[in-house]
Amino acid sequence: MQKDKAIVLKVEDIHKKYSNVEVLRGISFKIKKGETKVIIGPSGSGKSTLLRCINQLTIPDKGQVWLEGEEVTHTKKNINQFRQKIGMVFQDFNLFDHLNALRNVEIGLIKVKGMGKEEARQKAIEELKQVGLEEQAHLYPAQLSGGQKQRVSIARTLAMDPSVILFDEPTSALDPELIGEVLEAIKKLALKGMTMAVVTHEMGFARSVANEIIFMEGGKIVDQGSPHELFTNSQHARTRKFLYKITELYGRSVKEK
Amino acid sequence: MTENFLAIYEALPYLLRGSLVTISLVGGALALGLTLGIPMAIGQVYGNKYIAGLISFYVWFFRGLPVLVLLFLFYFGLFSILGLDLSAFTAGILVLGLRSAAYQSQIFRGGIQSLGEGQMLAALSLGMNKTKAAWHIILPQALRISIPGWSNEYSIILKDSAVTYAIGLMEIMTRGKFIATRTFKPMPIFLTCALIFLILTYGGVKFLSLLEKKVKIPGYGTEREEIY
Predict the structure, then answer these.
(1) B217 with A57: Cβ contact below 8 A
(2) Which residues are CB-neighbours of A50 under 8 A, at least 6 positions away?
(3) What is the nearest CA distance from B209 to chain A, expressed in angstroms?
(4) Do B220 and A97 touch (CB under 8 A)?
(5) Between chains, do B127 and A95 touch, taking CB under 8 Å as contact?
(6) What is the nearest CA distance from B40 to chain A, expressed in angstroms?
(7) Which of B215, A140, A127, A125 is CA-nearest to residue A117?
(8) What is the reported pTM?
(9) N or C: which terminus of chain A has fewer CB atoms within 10 Å of its end residue's CB?
(10) B21-168+193-214 architecture in CATH?
């Protein structure tokens, strides 16, 4: 196995049940270094729960997660060590409201990584530049647009130098005209070789950046394959129906026909 | 009329010394309540069920009894049983402070819970442990939100402090009663006491509202404005 094809994240047979609802029923997949895996599926299919099971914000009932060969689940090692390396970007940003953009990005460096203030500041400014927000460094979350907030949150995650980043519907809370800037930032990361798992409903985005798309429904992986395979000749009727519905919604099917 | 003013004039230094006692008593009780109330709020929200249960019991006990009952129970009961020879002043701070902790914990709990779980999740996802997340992320926001409620607690404790009259603490009211009885001029004396309380309440509440403005997060929350 070549080094650049090393498996960064391995998820095996994850199960999760809330009272009587089985949200996840045996999910397994791997992400290789530099890969972007896009997870799609109808609401309530367990996509967000799956991401949370990966960094243990939700504890799965069964199954394992490995990060770079080390088991994250059932580990005696401090989970906080793993979480530093597993970045997470949330649907509703979850920026720290009492801190300006710059402090949002540097707080993890200072309080978690123990980095010196000056060094952390430099790195935070660098990360904000990456997402085009160095000018907004001193603004507070309430003073930023949704798209800007999400880009700050991406910078905050990047600052920790994660091995993999999990995106949980990063554009679902945004106005249509702000979605583009966030997708652009994520696309840039993909091109730079960041390893990522992205839950999204943005099919155009999925199509253009995914190495592989996973289609989930009812807590199971129903279908998976390259964007080309899934979009043009999926063997599963269910996948075709879902993709047809969602592309129709975005007004593409009429033109493509 | 003149003799009333004269009575007030003569009583004033004595009553003002009582105000200092009241201020230290209230300051001490609030500080004790703050020191206990913050960890209690965190424990109730983020702690396991045993910790949360224990705190709920504490809150139920101290909120469920009149302050006078608590004072007597502790001062004449518990402290003597424990063999503690406490002054009325120390006992007053302890009882008012332990009771205030129960109320303050609920003010802060409300502040923490109004934040929503996203702030904690984001902090944990960066690799912070719960304690650091509570200290650096949750508390700075929750405490800001809690200032108006805390200001209420200040004014309530200030007025409740007069109850320590019952254990002979030499605060404003004890001294007022003493002079009123001696001079047979209850009205001017008690009016003076009332005025001192009004000034103290005003000063403290004003200070806290200035503090609230000073630490306000830019762009966050609702400004006072006309809504049509």
Answers:
(1) no
(2) A11, A14, A24, A27, A39, A199, A216
(3) 18
(4) yes
(5) no
(6) 22
(7) A125
(8) 0.86
(9) C
(10) Orthogonal Bundle (1.10)
